[in-house]
Amino acid sequence: MSFDNEPTSQALATEIDTHVANHPEMNPSTHMSTNGLEGIPMSLIGMPRVKLVQPVSQNVELATGVDATPGSFFFSDSMTSKPEIRIAIITAKKSEVTFDNDDGPSTVDRIGILFQDLESGKKYLTDLSVTSFSNFGKLMGLMAAEEWENAWDKDIVLSSEKREGKKGKYFVVKFTVGNALSEDKQTELAELWTMFGGYFTREGEIFEEA
User: pTM surpassing 0.85?
Assistant: First the structure.
């Protein structure tokens, strides 16, 4: 099932913040197991990023030396891109982020998503601009209607849709829900949530400009 772009709502922000606020209490499994670092939470571990490439995106050069195609997803660790990604969401949070622009500071809303790439098994961080909020809101609505217990109950395919506005052409993230994940995979993802469910409570900047 896929979703088209529409205006966002306050209910979406409330639902996301409530979900993240209920992450597990800190326990040994949420901290580093390395001797001498056992007081450091796993949520401080830096994550590679996946970015939806826009026509104006910077720092999206592939390993081949050319820029990634607008509308594709750029992987910062491998310097590769894909037209779509099959993922499982680990945790997400809506935040206000301030950027320094030529005209001065600008504050925008973003949704950060920590997910597992189900093809590689790696964890990645991405963030949604406000133009993708509606599609994400519809995904949340489907989860609520189907009474998902966890954000990782089913796989989700990320792809892109082209839009055009006053500032020209841009892309938004499209979410397509797939099948229920296996019990073993859901157990693995639940363990990742235990370790990284507090990722967006870490201090410092976690978002980046497109």
Answer: no
